[in-house]
Amino acid sequence: MTPPSLAEDVDTALYEADPVERDRARGRVARQADDATLRLLVAALDAAHRQTRRRAARILSEARPDRVRPHLAATLRDRALSARVRAAAARLLGILAAGDEPALADGLADPEASVRRHAASARAPEAALVTALLDPDPGVATHAAQALAERGASPPADVLAEAVAHHDPAPEGLLRALAAAAPASPAVVAAAQAGVDAALDHLADPATLRALLATEHRVVAAWHLARLGEATAALAADPDPRVRAAAARGLLPDDPALAALAADADPAVRWTAARALAGDFARPEERLAPHARANAPSARPPYGLSPDDAVAPVPRLHAALALCHTRIDVNLGVAVRSAEAAGLEAVFLVGRGDLFSTPARGTDRVIPVHAVADAAALVRTARERGYQIVGLQQTPRSVPYHRAPYPPSPLFVVGAEDTGLPAALRSAADLLVEIPMYGVIDSLNVAASATCVMFHWRVHRA
Question: What does pTM read for this prediction?
Answer without folding.
Answer: 0.75
